[in-house]
């Protein structure tokens, strides 16, 4: 009986550790300075559970973030992609940059009211969000990251 209890405790601790590691995996991937592509399910898990909390925004991440809503056929989206790749390197370990393909995340796009692409959600340290639509130059992104996201 005692050995079963000890085994159960180890199993619970192991599952908790594994779950915690998986939850942080999307943030820790960005330590390599990469833009992270999310499905709508991953968005609900790592950014905002739009199915559960439709009225009140609650950011689930532990670092400031940019979420790029884009599509492969969108010329302006393709134009801004290399800028986001550079920013992911420039701000690695400080912010997380995600991208969500609207063609594969129609429910999420509808729920958040994404009507034009590229659309960027800029999420600061406190979890407050601002929305920007359209292509922005790298310097404007950097200014927004420094002031709005990092509070410099």
Report on this structure.
Helices cover 46% and strands 16% of the residues. The protein has five helices and five strands; from the N terminus they run H-E-H-E-H-E-H-E-E-H. It has helices at residues 2-29, 40-46, 75-90, 106-112, 138-149; strands at 36-37, 65-70, 96-101, 119-123, 129-133. Strands 1-3-2-4-5 form a five-stranded mixed β-sheet, with helices on both faces. The longest helix is centred in the N-terminal third of the chain and has 28 residues, at 2-29. It is globular and about 35 Å long.
Strands, helices and their partners?
Elements: H1 2-29, E1 36-37, H2 40-46, E2 65-70, H3 75-90, E3 96-101, H4 106-112, E4 119-123, E5 129-133, H5 138-149
Parallel strand pairs: 1-3, 2-3
Antiparallel strand pairs: 2-4, 4-5
Short note summarizing the structure:
With 152 residues, the protein is α/β, with parallel strands linked by helices.
Helix content: 40-55%
Largest sheet: 5 strands, mixed
Number of strands: 5
- Overall radius of gyration: 18 Å
Average pLDDT across residues? 82
Which percent band covers the strand fraction? 15-25%
Characteristic terms for this protein:
5-stranded mixed beta sheet, 5 strands, alpha/beta
């Amino acid at each position: 009986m005692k050995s079963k209890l000890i085994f159960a405790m180890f199993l619970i601790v192991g599952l908790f550790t594994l779950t915690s590691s998986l939850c942080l995996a999307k943030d820790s991937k960005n330590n390599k300075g990469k833009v992270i592509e999310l499905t709508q399910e991953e968005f609900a898990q790592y950014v905002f559970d739009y199915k559960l909390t439709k009225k009140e925004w609650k950011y689930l991440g532990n670092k400031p973030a940019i979420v790029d809503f884009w599509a492969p056929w969108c010329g302006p989206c393709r134009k801004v992609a290399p800028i986001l790749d550079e920013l992911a390197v420039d701000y690695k370990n400080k912010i997380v940059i995600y991208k969500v393909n609207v063609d594969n995340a129609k429910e999420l796009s509808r729920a958040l009211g994404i009507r034009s692409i590229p659309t960027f959600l800029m999420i600061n340290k406190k979890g407050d969000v601002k929305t920007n639509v359209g292509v922005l130059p790298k310097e404007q992104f950097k200014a927004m990251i420094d002031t709005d996201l990092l509070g410099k």
